[in-house]
Write a structure and sequence with these properties.
seven-stranded mixed beta sheet; single chain; Rossmann fold; six-stranded parallel beta sheet; alpha/beta
């Protein structure tokens, strides 16, 4: 199961050549892979590229028809290692993951692959996002490409360019015997557009042929002295071959502008093209169709830079602006080196007018381009103002021609006003929004089964004191946020257990407390079983490890993993985590099959933290991810209701008359479906708890309010769709009973009022 299904969309992958293909960027990448004759594809999901794995999974019937092998890898390292199939055989392979964190995991395999080189095309598709859209950390793939000398493609964010980059990537890889990285930013992954298709191709060389005709070349194995020869090959053969290919195929683009502007230009990465052109359009230096008045050099190949192309563009120009996100300023430095080597005096601007870090939005680029032009060609900005002023004057008073002095004064006033607007526009808007909208920190979903785990831990913490907690990547990382505020470090996916290793020294030195580490089931199968649990057993660590088992790799979109509870026709599932940890030697294991049972969770954590048994203590907390559960159950419920079947839905609510206003349910659970509401009682001025319509009836709020005892203010209600006759009779009986009790209460109230009035009458 995945976050999104592409079962319907993948049928477009069958369309014949010459068809106009319309769809999302991820679908276009998949179609391009099939057109390129890819032999195998693997990878590991992660934003913003997760959906590529989902598309490939849904497209398996089509892949099998073409003889393409697909497998979701256990980690990025496993995926990268699979590219070894292209080292000795002319078979095309592609892998995909989230960069830069995924690239970090895969770095060992990638470095070996780049050193030994490849025979068949090897394409590494990374989801790149230097900003806040999906990145965990502000880093760039560019550094790794340079370090290992792998060519890096950064296509413009439109479907024809992306599809072409896939084709070019395979051909470039084969022409240079070098793996090629293709970075797709978040906008490229999710944009919609169209392109003209080519015919899908079966692999020219298959893995079956490789198995039946094995080839062995020890010179491709990365060991001295071969590794030294690989380095010479990179410098003397692969680099020149790459430069030749880039030039002959014209992978980078030159735009001369309108021919009037020749002394300045802009050098940009392909992924920055759309935003840069939009910024130029706002400065009246480009039109809606992307035709720029300023000369442009678009680097669809981010690495390597081609000296001859740099000379061609920069020769005769007094200054150029380099548009590259992030730091360090790799391209800016490299361009200065090339220009110095070529004895060209072109001034290079970049981070002096653009921010060193952060996402290069249109607004950021507009200000940067304006700053560049104000230094080098201020007349281009004045020309825009002059034209605007002239048109305005003609509309108001056609017969009155403005004087030069008047025009100059108005230009200066408009320039000052624009500068002031640029200075205060965003902060003022941000401040205004901040007053209206409170900050929205990341948090767990409504009904998340991980929430009661952390609530239980906080309750144990009250009794046993604060312990050192290591966190892991995944939904459970939100434990660091209020109201839980658990966790001191996070070192990477599946490394939560490993990051607590050093604290085992405390036990050896007689410390009274154990270290605690949380890890998800996705991280467990990704890296945690061997690097974490196996290592802990081997080193006789005395720490406590909590494995959050929600049935899926939930944080990356809900993909199946070995311990998933549902059956998958293409994968082997239903392998319990408990069996795996016991298999590597863990003897102390506690399994909680329903995390919403706060009392059971509390007891398991308490036992683990107080146990005197040597060795690691593992608590497996299992409940299905509520988001995926709702995705699975809601369509079934809707279909059943439509078919007239009886469906029972649970809902929770709060009795305002009983609620004390303590709000422990919120303070300890933090569920988004809980909010505040007026009490409706003049004697209770403080607001009471309230449950909104997002509630999924997990019951956690009521349980945690008093450590597994349902708070008396909470009530459970049942909504019945398509009630039976028996349901209707019971509802009528309940209504009669409630009506009678309400009537009795009113009669008693009236009697008390009459009694009080009678007493008042007889008093002297």
């Amino acid at each position: 199961m995945a976050e999104r299904s592409f079962v319907k969309e993948v049928e477009q992958l069958r369309v014949p050549a010459g068809t106009v293909f319309r769809g999302e960027g991820i679908l276009a990448v998949t179609k391009a892979l099939l057109e390129a004759g890819v032999g195998y594809v693997t990878g590991y999901q992660g934003s913003p590229i997760s959906h590529l794995m989902d598309v490939l999974s849904d497209a398996q019937p089509i892949l099998k028809e073409l003889g393409v092998y697909f497998e979701p890898a256990a980690s990025e390292a496993a995926a990268a290692a699979a590219l070894s199939a292209s080292v000795n055989y002319p078979v095309r392979g592609a892998v995909t993951w989230k960069s830069t964190v995924g690239t970090n995991v895969a770095s060992d395999a990638l470095a070996n692959l780049a050193s030994g080189g490849v025979t068949g095309g090897a394409l590494i598709i990374v989801g790149e996002d230097y900003g806040e859209g999906s990145s965990i950390m502000q880093e760039r793939t560019h550094a790794f490409a340079m370090k290992s000398q792998m060519w890096l493609l950064d296509p413009q964010p439109n479907l024809p360019a992306i599809v072409k980059a896939v084709h070019d990537g395979f051909e470039l890889s084969e022409a240079t015997n070098t793996p090629v990285m293709l970075e797709l930013r978040i906008r490229s992954c999710h944009l919609h557009g169209s392109f003209i298709t080519e015919e899908n191709r079966r692999p020219a060389f298959t893995l079956k042929q490789a198995l039946e005709n094995p080839v062995r070349d020890v010179n491709r194995i990365v060991l001295p002295p071969a590794s030294f020869l690989h380095e010479k090959e990179k410098i003397h053969e692969r680099w020149p071959a790459a430069v030749k290919f880039i030039q002959e195929r014209q992978l980078n683009e030159f735009h001369d502008g309108d021919g009037e502007i020749k002394d300045v230009g802009i050098i940009m990465l392909g992924g920055m093209a759309n935003n840069t052109l939009r910024a130029l359009m706002q400065l009246d230096l480009a039109d809606l169709f992307g035709e720029s008045r300023v000369p442009l050099y678009i680097l669809n190949v981010a690495y390597p830079l081609v000296e001859e192309e740099v000379r061609r563009f920069c020769e005769g120009k007094k200054a150029v602006l380099v548009v590259e996100e992030g730091q360090p300023d790799y391209h800016e430095q490299h361009l200065n080196t090339i220009l110095a080597r070529l004895n060209l005096n072109t001034k290079v601007h970049g981070k002096d007018v653009l921010p060193m870090g952060g996402d290069y939005t249109v607004d950021v680029l507009r200000k940067g381009v304006r700053a560049f032009l104000q230094r080098q060609r201020p007349d281009l900005l004045e020309r825009k103002t002059s034209a605007t002023v002239t048109r305005r004057k003609e509309e108001v008073a056609p017969a009155a021609a403005p004087t030069a002095e008047a025009l100059a004064a108005e230009r200066a006033a408009q320039a000052a006003a624009q500068a002031e607007q640029d200075k205060v526009e965003v902060p003022e808007i941000a401040a205004a929004i901040g007053k209206l909208l409170p900050p929205r920190p990341p948090g767990l979903c409504v009904g998340c089964p991980e929430r009661p785990i952390f609530s239980a831990y906080k309750l144990v913490e009250q009794e046993l004191g604060v312990h050192h907690v290591s966190s892991d990547i995944g939904c459970h990382l939100f434990q660091i946020m209020p109201p839980f505020e658990i966790g001191a470090t996070t070192m990477g996916y599946g490394l939560g257990v490993s990051s607590a290793s050093a604290f085992s020294a405390g036990a050896q030195l007689g410390a009274s407390k154990k270290a605690v580490a949380f890890m998800g089931d996705g991280g467990f199968w990704h890296n945690g079983l061997t690097s974490g649990i196996g290592n802990a057993v081997f080193n006789k660590q005395n720490n406590v490890f909590v494995i959050v088992d929600n049935n899926y790799s939930a944080a990356t979109g809900g993909q199946d993993i070995p311990s998933s509870r549902n059956t998958n026709p293409n994968r082997s599932t239903l392998h319990p985590i408990e069996a795996a940890v016991r298999g590597v030697g863990v003897t102390w294991v506690r399994f909680v099959g329903r995390t919403y049972d706060v009392n059971a969770m509390k007891q398991a954590l308490h036992d683990a933290l107080t146990s005197e048994e040597p060795g690691p203590k593992v608590v497996i907390a299992q409940s299905e991810c509520m988001l995926n559960r709702q995705r699975r159950e809601k369509p079934l419920a809707r279909a059943a209701i439509k078919n007239g079947e009886r469906i029972l839905k649970e809902r929770f609510g709060v009795d305002a008359a009983v609620c004390s206003g303590d709000h422990a349910c919120m303070r300890v659970s933090g569920c988004p479906s809980l909010t505040l509401a007026p009490s409706g009682d003049a004697l209770k001025p403080d607001p009471v708890a309230s449950v909104d319509e997002d509630c999924v009836a997990c019951g956690h709020c009521g349980e945690v309010a008093d450590a597994a005892v349902l708070c008396p203010s909470f009530y459970k209600a049942h909504k019945v769709n398509n009630p039976t006759g028996w349901d209707q009779w019971l509802a009528g009986l309940r209504a009669s009973a409630v009506g009678w009790l309400q009537g009795r209460r009113e009669r008693d109230r009236a009697a008390r009022q009459l009694y009080a009035a009678t007493i008042d009458e007889v008093r002297p």
